[in-house]
Amino acid sequence: MTPFELAEPRSLREAASLLVAGGEPARAIAGGTALMLMMKAGVFQPKRLVSLRGVEARYSEISATPDGSLHIGALATLTALAHAEAVKKAAPVITQTLKTLSNVRVRNVATVGGALAHGDPHMDLPPVLTALDARVNTVSPGGGRTLAVGELYTGYYETALADDELIAEVIVPPLASAAAQGGWRAVYKKITTRAADDWPTLGIAVALCREANQVKDARLVVSAATNTPVRLLAAENTLRGAVLDAATLARCGDAAMAEVELAGDAHGSSAYKRELLRVHVQRALREIMV
């Protein structure tokens, strides 16, 4: 690695300002699980690393509000997220997803904000949080803004974050109160050709709001074989207002397969992954129906 300066600010806003101070290439570092690998490989050669470990403690906290919303500090580790009782109660799909996200050594140091800001299309949290209609609050020297997680990604390893902007918090809206009966339920299907904690060949997140057996609303998201998490809008439309029976599931699977281009790689061709998508969308819906 090339030599670099290490800055240790005491606030997140100060950290954001240091990312552009002096005009030299800079990177924020929290857990560093991906950044350090890229620096060793020469992909990134920052002149300054801005450590986030000394900023305000509130950005590592995880809590639930009285209305059922989750507030997740961007510096909370993935292990803390996996073990948080508030998350298990309000959004159990996140807890289930984290069981096979990378490995325990990575989860112990990797942070929620870093996992989102990295922009890797193979990550498990972005499609799940997109399906949950989550949003991020950011901090920058001039203030900050709110973005839907689904709006955060603009391309392969590319995000909408400005050079002087950091994710501060993730907010997941309440699920259970969305309908009088049944409410929202969500599942994540991680399809991998190797170990369960490996990068997914395909990631499929499904969130469904039902009253009895009729679908009121739906969000379906595919990732890993796409440059960014992609909402399957046509598949969602086949579900709204429909009864969840075998015919509806089949139509939804066919619509999902038809509306998105998936990238082939060493783990499977595009056609193979589209078939995986068709099958596993239906399996996800059956899991929600149980």
Which parts are unreliable, with pLDDT below 50 for 5 consecutive residues or more? Answer: 177-181
- Using the alpha-carbon principal axes, give the shape: globular
> Order of strands side by side in the largest beta sheet?
4-5-10-6-7
Distance between the ends: 51 Å
Number of strands: 14
- Work out the helix count: 12
SSE series:
EHEHEEEHHHHHHEEHEEEEEEEHHH
The portion of residues assigned to helices is 25-40%
Radius of gyration: 19 Å
Major β-sheet, in short?
5 strands, antiparallel
The mean pLDDT is: 94
Structural class: alpha+beta
Classify the beta-strand content into a percent band. 15-25%
Structure in words:
There is one protein chain. By secondary structure, the chain is of the alpha+beta class. Helices cover 33% and strands 24% of the residues. It contains 12 helices and 14 strands. The protein has helices at 12-18, 35-40, 78-83, 85-90, 92-98, 104-109, 112-117, 125-131, 149-152, 233-239, 246-259, 270-289, and strands at 5-7, 26-29, 48-51, 62-64, 70-73, 135-139, 146-148, 153-155, 158-159, 166-172, 183-191, 202-211, 214-223, 230-231. The strands form 4 sheets. Strands 4-5-10-6-7 form a 5-stranded antiparallel sheet. A 4-stranded antiparallel sheet has the order 11-12-13-14, with helices on both faces. Strands 1-3-2 form a 3-stranded parallel sheet, with helices on one face. Strand 13 and strand 14 form a beta hairpin. Mean pLDDT is 94; it is low at 177-181.
